[in-house]
Amino acid sequence: MLGAERKLITWLAAAVLALAGLLYGLYLRQVGQRLDIGAAQAMAAYAGVLQGYNEFADVTARWLLQDAGNADLVHDLFGRRPDAAGLLYRRLYPMYESLRAKQVRQLHFIDREGYSRLRMHAPDLYGDKIADLRPLVASVLATGQPRTGFEYGRVFSGFRFVYPVYTGERVAGAMEISLSFTAIRRLMGKTLPEGTTVRFLLRRDELAQALASGEDRSGMLALMKSMYLVSPINDGYLTEDLVHPLFGEAAEPLPGYAGRLERVIGGDAAVAAGMATGAEFSRHACLALDDCYLVNFLPVREAGGALAAYVVAYGPDVGQVSRVAFLSGTFLFGALSVLGLGFLGVSGLRARSRMRAISEHVGKGIYVIDRAGVVTYANPAVQAILGYRPDELVGQHAHDLLHLESDHMAVPAADCPIVRVTLNGGNYVSSAETFRCKDGTTVPVEVTASPIRELGEISGVVTVFSDIRERLAVESKLRQSDAAINQTVEGVMITDARNRVVAVNHAFTRMTGYTESDIVGMEPKLLRSGRHTPEFFRAMWASIAETGYWQGEVYNRRKNGSLFPAWLSIAAILDDEGRATSYVAVFNDISDIKEKEAKLDFLAHHDQLTGLPNRALFGDRLEHAIARAARNRRHLAVMFMDLDRFKQVNDSLGHDAGDRLLVDCAARLTACIREEDTLARQGGDEFVILVEDLGDGRDAAQVADKLIAALRPAFAVQGHSVYVGGSVGISLYPDDGVDVPTLLRHADASMYLAKQAGGNTYRFSNPSLARDAAERLVLEAELRRALAEDELVLHYQPKVELGSGRILAFEALLRWRHPGRGMLSPAAFLHVASEAGMMHDIGRWVMRVAAAQAAAWHAAGLGAAVSVNVDGSQLSGDRLGELVREVLRETGLDAAQLGLEITETAIMEQPAGVLAKLSQLRDLGVKLYIDDFGTGHSSLARLKQLPISVLKVDAAFVRDIVDDVSDRAIVRATVALGHELGLRVLAEGVETVEQLHLLREMGCDSAQGYHLSRPIPAAEATALLQAGGSLPL
């Protein structure tokens, strides 16, 4: 009996254990289903959020870069225009604030060389090279294609969307939009079941390596300890401390169970093993029998595929209480299997009901199929997208009913990637699927499908999909926009790697006369004009080989043989290995522009009848000549010549004959003077001659004799032999005057003395020494009064960047608005000021007024720098440094916006101690110029010690640079020397477009002169900046 009882007890115990085992197996199966569905939901939420932000970043990037104002400032930024960063920051700031509200963490601009040019989140940090540390950025700069992915940074890490920025066909740089983890966490939290918590775990070793890549390794590692917290889940991973000032985000409180749960997860060996392999996996973790959680681990990989982080999503297992109650009831009461199974079925129905409630509030379509492909569940969102009610889908074969290929063709179920991949255990993600709607229409969808496992076996598939018609429509519009841009009016020619033409556009045919059939297969040298040397083309191709780009002015030959000037840009198209596969040339015919420029320039500065310089150009040359003569302590002569007996010829033979005579006289007089001297027509029958570099008055007399003698032979005019003579008046610098009006006035007066002497002779101006001394005393008194009563004014002459025409700065030039003599140049009074010891007071006034004007420009957003001339006497002692600091403090001007121009001679005459004081000014940020470089006697040993930023090539060398080989060689050597010393080079006294083009070809950085702009009042300078801040070249 006892044995039977024991057998019975054993049987009952075995039955109970078998029942318990069965129930526990069912419990594990339910948990597995819950984990599979939770993993699919987490993966769908994660992929959907990233895709949504990717679309958002695409639209934002296109909007930013297609806006003309933004694009211009971005190109200026990459061209390193000094004020471009500030202007772009102010323009984009309102939009950037709205992006930050959408959890965009960074908006970053990087130039083609990989250097940071502007961080909207940290505008004061720029100039560091980041491409070497950021593979995504390097890839975009190399390929010109946008890239997306996760990447660690030296401070911030996250999901980055990097887009190329083009200038024409050339990649000029990149723009990066970076997404904070908070954005993904919040959006996933909205999509996943209520109560789900999302955490981002960053690999500790990768983050430390990224942070330590900067110069301050120890400081960055210390920063990492303050910005990140060690994760309890795995001490090899970190989480962001959102309340840290660098993140600037409000802390989001975690659920009360989070700390205990993460420690429990961290103690699970299976979690550590899964994270070590970088796999996607899920775990069921319990704090108590009735307090369990579903935990999903989603790996985050860098662009190269390496594991970078984990997204961990966990939330309460809402069915756990029911399951525990069921098991407890089974063990406690020994419930019958039918009752147990019924209870389990009820619990399952409840769990499925809860899952159904969750899925019915998701905006994306969800359906579940079994292994046979039959739909077992569909949520209400399916009807909104496809038109099928959920009950109409259940029981139907999903593939036959819904699935199409992208070309709208049906395929067998075995070939359907959604079915094939998932039933083989993989996750399927695609943004190029097509589903059939109930009404027979089709809809493009984005699909994420994951297998459902029960007891380790795949029992079905859960598919999440969304309608992407709106996104595709946006992309279509963008493609249409791109096609419209390609219909350019510029000529375009594309060649292969062997430089054979493969395609041209209609504008090319219109400009050159060559059709596509004429030119395809030929080499571009068919267009060569013969006006460029082999060295020119070697330099062009060297630039393309080195930088992938060349731009400049060329002359091309049309099919009919005629030549035309063109502005040409050539860009190399590179493959993934950096080899050129083709070249794209884009050009404009600039014939009209060149002709108009030449005509306008000539008409503005030359007499239309004789072609000689006119009064304005002569005055400008004389002003520069006076400055050179003053520096070199040399004489110059101004000669006024009036033709004797011209009026009789004009009255008797007519105006045409008079004009012919004037032209012939101009030719004879031109033959008598040197190339460096100037002959101009003053008006009527008057000519004026500038003769430089004279020893004394006897040299001037010899020149006057030659001029008079040249006019003595007869002129043949309309079949008549005509005789004229010349009366010449001569004034000498500095004996007869030190400014343009005085020298011209004395020469004019002397010419009348020659007329009174019978003509055909010359006379000198000879004011008495006593009168000269008296005039100096009067001038000194008037100058002191002028300084006290604000009669002094500043005019501003632009310094223009030769590459772009952009105004870099203005040179402040002193003028005296004399109440009786009108506007006087410095040459008329600075010698008196120097003798009277007034240069310090005048220099102080000039610097204060110029700095105040530059500060006003900066406050108005115009951002133009200003430079002032410094007299040699101001360099002694500490007064110059004190004055600069005082003026910067009073005006609030940035030191980088102020320049000091010191002549080569003045700086070389100073003791060595002055160099240290100038170095202090340079360290303060002030830009130092050497003025009139080449006219002094500096040595290279002394020159390289000077703390200067800019060399100014003297106008004496620039004036004859076109025709004089020596001057051209001097200027070319000066430009090369300046660049070798790391200096910028500026040419002054530029008077013609030919000089300008030659300087640009030599590589000169900037220029100023009468051709570009005369010195202008502050109001005109302001208007010029407001109109765009550039001058036509």
From TrEMBL:
GO molecular function, one term: ATP binding
Alphabetized PANTHER family for the sequence: BIOFILM ARCHITECTURE MAINTENANCE PROTEIN MBAA (PTHR44757:SF2), DIGUANYLATE CYCLASE DGCP (PTHR44757)
Protein name (database record): EAL domain-containing protein
Pfam families assigned: dCache_3, EAL, GGDEF, PAS, PAS_9
Transmembrane segments: 324-346
Keyword list, A-Z: ATP-binding, Kinase, Membrane, Nucleotide-binding, Phosphoprotein, Transferase, Transmembrane, Transmembrane helix, Two-component regulatory system
InterPro entries: Biofilm_reg_signaling, dCache_3, EAL_dom, EAL_sf, GGDEF_dom, Nucleotide_cyclase, PAC, PAS
GO cellular component: membrane
UniProt source species: Parasulfuritortus cantonensis
Chain ranges of the EAL domain: 776-1029
